[in-house]
Write a structure and sequence with these properties.
alpha+beta, binds manganese (II) ion
């Protein structure tokens, strides 16, 4: 985790800052605003912003979505929305796990809000983010090998199972309610 945060995530931040150094008008926007409208990023830096800006936004949400303590199940509006969409929290966990295991190569699996009140599980390749498709990520799991190889080697399924056990449902449930107001 320390290497993941202190080196991998840090590299995305440093590379993003380097890419944006020549574009002060972009540096004033939030990273979410930039990623929602990549087409307005000058072409010369667009790929660097997509890779490293996506990396920064994705990892920021990833760290916030985990906690050593706190609620281990969703609450409030999100609990109801998950039951409505997936039948039960257990079914949601199974489908999220299957999505995380289905990513070929490097990428992410997400719970997204694709429209008001509409939850869906999706995957993205590389550091692409649901923001680029006009969707709101509720939370996501990093399934790049760098996220699990040091501890779990090739056993991605063990890493995904461990991730479910440390999800910060206080934060995620609160985030969902904030997203509904946007
Ligand atoms: Mn990562």
């Amino acid at each position: 985790m320390e290497i993941h945060h202190g080196r991998h995530h840090a590299a995305y931040v440093n590379n993003l800052n380097n890419a944006l150094a020549g574009a002060p008008e972009l540096a004033q926007k939030s990273i979410e605003e930039i990623l929602r409208d990549l087409g307005s990023v000058p072409e010369a830096m667009r790929t660097a912003v997509r890779h490293n800006g996506g990396g920064h936004a994705n990892h920021t949400l990833y760290w916030q979505s985990m906690s050593p303590s706190g609620r281990r199940t969703p609450s409030g509006e999100l609990a109801r929305a998950i039951d409505t969409r997936f039948g039960s929290f257990g079914n949601f966990q199974d489908q999220f796990t299957q999505a995380a295991l289905s990513v070929f190569g490097s990428g992410w699996a997400w719970l997204i809000l694709e429209a008001p009140g509409q939850l869906r599980i999706v995957t993205t390749p590389n550091q692409d983010t649901p923001l680029m498709n006009g969707h709101q990520p509720v939370f996501g799991i990093d399934v790049w090998e760098h996220a699990y190889y040091l501890k779990y080697q090739n056993r991605r399924a063990d890493y995904v199972a461990a991730f479910h056990k440390v999800l910060n449902w206080d934060y995620i449930s609160e985030r969902y309610e904030q997203l509904l107001k946007k």
